[in-house]
Amino acid sequence: MTYIVLDMEWSQPVTKEKTVHRGDKALSVEIIQIGAAAVKDGKILDTAFNEYIKPIYYTKLTPRISKLTGITYDKLKDADDFERVLMRFRRWIRSVGGEQMIVIWGNEDVVLLKQQCDFFGCDGSWLPEWFNLQPIITKKYGINRPQMTLEAAVELVGEKSVLRYHSAVNDAYYTALVLSKTDNIPERLAWQRKVDYAHRHPFTSLVTEYHGRRKYKNISAALLSSEANSFSCPVCGRSYGMRSHAVMISDEEYLLVLNCCTNKSIAASLKLLCEEDGCTVHKKAQLCDTEQERLYNEILSSRGTFDFSSARRALRRK
């Protein structure tokens, strides 16, 4: 897979009331620079795309945008229009070759690029599938917030910042640098898509948990209880049985991985908290990650599923 790392800079209307409309289409921003790099097999390729675009409508760059990006109208006045630059960007992507995906830092760039294509009547259907690298990095490094700056990510992967940020081509390079330091991209992307799916559906949660209060006299009684027999899927809400497909991690912990009715991979764990006065049942169901699936398949192939029906007899012999 070849990853086309894209970044853009844009100008905006001075006020919301100055937004340009064409029929029912609104031009929320106007792209003034497209920058891109390419990553293949964990390496940044020796090729890049960098072009300014002359704006048609939002020609007056606000002081904030000029200060942030270093772009002035003098850099844009002799540039080509959006359609010509887009055509050359398309040719550059083709020259890179291979099966491709676009990578961006944040959620805006591709959406705004497609929006501008639509506004100006340009063909944007050729753009490859895309994904946002930002949440993948925050999950990998355990960052407990939904967003982080690109500069922070570069530092996190152990690299130093030399080039100026908020230049499209420089930010594309920095994003490519972070991407090149990230392993197992397809697996991490598959997990992120599960998370995105859950966020897009208001009745979907990422995790359902159950903490039982009833005390059972021993592990075998807890295992054979109705509380331990089923779990609620966090995606579809349906109740699924535990007993027929779960594997035993230890006497107190069990794991089940299956696809729910929406074809999403779910991991359900059952834990028995045992104290002097008895055992309680704790259950957790969540969108399955790679490590849970690996552990489940490993135990399943070596020992098979756990026989709940013989749990009482087996545990009494201990």
Secondary structure elements and their pairing?
Blueprint: E1 2-11, E2 20-22, E3 25-27, E4 30-40, E5 43-52, H1 63-69, H2 73-76, H3 82-96, E6 100-104, H4 109-120, E7 130-132, H5 134-140, H6 150-156, H7 168-180, H8 185-200, E8 207-211, H9 219-223, E9 230-232, E10 239-241, E11 247-250, E12 253-259, E13 265-275, E14 278-287, H10 290-303, H11 311-316
Parallel strand pairs: 1-6, 6-7
Antiparallel strand pairs: 1-4, 2-3, 4-5, 8-14, 9-10, 11-12, 12-13, 13-14
Provide key terms for this protein.
single chain, 318 residues, alpha+beta, Nucleotidyltransferase, domain 5, Alpha-D-Glucose-1,6-Bisphosphate, Chain A, domain 4, five-stranded mixed β-sheet, five-stranded antiparallel β-sheet, 14 strands
